[in-house]
Design goal:
Distance between the termini: 32 Å
Order of helices and strands: HHHHHHHHHHHHHH
Largest sheet: none
Radius of gyration: 23 Å
Number of helices: 14
Number of strands: 0
Amino acid sequence: MSSRRTGTRLGDFLSYLFMLAMFVFFAGPLSYLLSMALRDRREIYRGVARYIPHNPTMENFITVLNNSYFPIYLWNGLKLAALSGLGVLIVALPAAYAFSRFQFRGKGLSMMGLLLFQMISPLVIMVPLYRYMNKLGLLDTHFAVVMVYIALGVPLATWLLKSTVDGIPRSLDEAAMIDGCNRFSVFWRIVLPLSAPGIASVFIITVIAGWSQFLVPFLLLTQNNLMPIGVGIFNFRGMQTDSSIQLLAAACLISVVPAIVAFLSLQRLILGAMTSGAVKG
């Protein structure tokens, strides 16, 4: 009995040690970014290597927030991320319901195809994607960016939502159909309300992914007034005569804070959606 307790304690200790190592690994760059954002220009130019700034200042954050381009970048990033989240749900919800409730030829192959598509790096399709959008006349439009976001987000969203729908007893569907509901009514009145936590989680995950997206808008957008926050920060230094490293650090922190706060606040909801249906049956 004592050996079992010792093994449990050792396992807990190793788990906490691993989580601490992961926290340091991911939080280290962010903390150094904060250190850079709190320095003034003189300390940056001197190349001072100390971790804690000698004279911390919030002036860099004020300068970034007062910049005329930055609110536009923030709004574009939020707009693209939110629209892509809604689009992903519109496509993935019916697909998840079909994969969960219907039996059809090639079902397993189709699910595997979604996983394979998710594994493809966007870098592979960037050149043909650019030429395709150019022929359609959709370059420098938010519509093109949102469509690509949706295509990239649907596979993972379908898998997560399928797990959520799998956790809803089929007996509810059968009871509703006995009462006169058709398949669409069952989906709309039964499945969607009971899937609300999973739907909210998938929407949050998709919005966070869209918020942090860089490659797609960098390729498809060239006008400053259309760029989201990820690409805007990349171009921030080139458009500001007084910008330097400390301003870029402040801009990066401002852009990443919403995603971190959203994930930490809703992590239980997100993890619940990802694990729902895992122990079904």
